[in-house]
Amino acid sequence: MVRLRPAVLPGLRQGDGRLLPRDRLRLDPAQLGRARRGLWVALAEVQAEIGLVQPAQVEDLRAHALRRLESCFPEAERQVGLSQLPARLAAWPARRREHLAVLAKAIRADDFLAPDATVVGQEVRFRGHFHGLPVKGVIARIDRLSPPAGGEDRFLFLDYKTPKKMPFGIQNEAGEAKVDLQIPLYQIAAGRALYPGREIEGAYFSLNGAKRIKDADPPPDGWLEAFAREVLARVWEGRFPVAPDVGRLACGRCDFTSVCRIGPRLDRKEWAQERRTNA
Questions:
Q1: d(CA 42, CA 55)
Q2: What is the pLDDT along the chain (279 residues), one digit of tens a residue?
Q3: What is the value of pTM for the model shown?
Q4: Which residues contact 92 (CB under 8 A, 6 or more apart)?
Q5: Is the Cβ–Cβ distance between 177 and 244 less than 8 Å?
Q6: Beta sheet of 154-161, edge-to-edge order
């Protein structure tokens, strides 16, 4: 059985085969990943503390989380080996203060935790099916929300983002990377696996913006089912055409520009060839 992670699925329809800017720090991807994870681990530690406290008052809960932030961040740095990074990361103390300030602002934000919410899980792993497509993944945070009168508890699947706007998704009919995939996938695959029969909400929370990012428009009827069928067909056929979205947003996240058959590298070569031809 082929089982895919949600993170790899958008690439199949975006067309490709930051906290710390890689070019500025000149770190290789593994080192960059360690530096990035320091912030995420710290936030997960704080979330674990939130989950242990009964939310009698959200303000008390926030104060508790803020007190924990300073103490858990060094442990996060130790876990991801930041002390072992090269001297190129000499600016880390300054960036560390920036990260702590970003996290503190996020925790204080109204959107970070609703008054009726209880954090019941963080970094929750799941396995499920998305319109017949086997998937597995990790949900950053799960909140239990108060039920409506006479109803059952609802759940909110929350994912953290660093940008202040919606992440780009898979391509729509016009070739624009505007169809959100991650939240619908969580609601369908993870929702059925973890809380069958319950109402599942999904949202993105911007750490830099300290607010919930505007919900995406729902995809057209049948769009996600067709996407799942297309992914299965491509996997079994071994067919992965390079077809970036019209705005080439996917190209900005691709590490294979040097061997790309479409994209900026090819554009530069064609431009150079055209100049030589017209010279």
A1: 21
A2: 334 445 544 544 444 433 333 333 344 444 445 555 556 666 666 766 666 555 555 667 778 888 888 777 777 777 666 666 555 566 777 777 888 888 889 889 999 888 888 888 888 999 999 988 889 999 988 999 988 777 888 999 999 888 888 888 888 888 888 888 889 999 999 999 999 999 999 999 998 899 999 776 677 788 888 888 888 888 888 887 777 888 888 777 777 777 777 766 666 766 667 777 776
A3: 0.74
A4: 35, 82, 85
A5: no
A6: 117-130, 133-145, 154-161, 200-206, 211-212
Length of the chain measured in residues = 279
Give bridge partners of residue 204 from the DSSP assignment: 159
Please give the Cα distance from 208 to 234 (Å, whole number): 36
Q: Are 138 and 194 spatial neighbours (Cβ–Cβ below 8 Å)?
A: no
CA distances from 116 to 56, 141, 258, 274, 275 (A): 10, 15, 50, 62, 63
Alpha-carbon dihedral 5, 11, 12, 14, rounded to 10 degrees = 150
Residue with tokens 């150079």: 272
E-strand ranges in 146-218 read 154-161, 170-171, 177-179, 200-206, 211-212
Nearest to 157 by CA among 198, 129, 108: 198
